[in-house]
Amino acid sequence: MPRFLAVYTMKPENVVRFRALPKAEQDAVDAAGLPQWVAWEKANAASFHDRGMVGKTKRVTKDGIADAQNDICGYVVVEAESIEAAAKLFENHPHFSIFPGDGVDIMPFVTGPED
What CA–CA distance (Å, rounded) separates 86 from 108? Predict the structure, then answer.
């Protein structure tokens, strides 16, 4: 079955805005969102092969290594019949329906020119 990389995105300024909220408001968002996220993961666990969150970024270019910033905050490797089926798993996901995430980008793994 095909595998896809699902990348959670969140603009850095949205993280800053969320972290600037009073602690009680952050806790309320977590209290609402985390149980839904856990339930979503449990319901779809058979489709996941790897998942995690990511931290600070280093970018390597011809000019060397430097700190960098992007919108990627986590990932899931999903097994699904099609990219459409993989994308449907993330409809109304708590990452963006409750938390300040922007969305989830779904990309197929490509292993060669025939893919």
Answer: 10
Is residue 57 pLDDT above 90, yes or no? Answer: yes
Q: CA 74 to CA 11: how far, in whole Å?
A: 12
d(CA 86, CA 113): 22
In a domain, 95, yes or no: yes
Contact 93, 40 (CB under 8 A): yes
pTM above 0.70, yes or no: yes
The residue type of 31 is A
- Give the helix ranges, DSSP H, for the chain: 12-20, 23-44, 83-88, 94-97
Token reading at 19 = 């972290």
Domain that holds residue 87: 3-108
Closest CA to 15 of 74, 65, 64: 74
According to DSSP, the residues that pair with 72 across neighbouring strands are 9
- 23: enclosing H helix or E strand: helix 23-44
